[in-house]
Acyl-CoA thioester hydrolase
Amino acid sequence: MNPTALPHDHDIKVGPDVIDFMGHVNNAHYLSWVQEAVLAHWRHIAPPEAVAGHLWVALKHEITYRRPAFLDDQVIATVILEKVQGARAFYETIIKRGEDVLAEVKSSWCCIDAETLRPARLASEVVARFFPGEKS
């Protein structure tokens, strides 16, 4: 049984700096949005001492583009932590404009100790904050 993770919605501002020559958001900016959303999710749920003591490094992104985004669109990235395995975290991020899915992203991240800059496992009580539906 998969534990129930807390989703996190992250509002995205589509400004003129992300629009490409075709008049829509350049694909590379979607990855910046995913990084912003995942890190905002971490800061929102993790305790302050865990946030201060850990950094996150992206290991892999797999992105499927569904529709373009345009200047001044109201866009939301919803992130869900799928699982934590050792020092790795696996996320799904859905980027939407209203009901329209713009992109779906699967990504994996490595937790890094902020002092040693080495991979670090999160304490089980920190991980449990992200999966409140899981029974111990």
About this structure: The chain has one domain: 8-130. The chain has three helices and five strands. The first strand starts at residue 8 and ends at 13. Helices lie at 28-45, 48-53, 124-130.
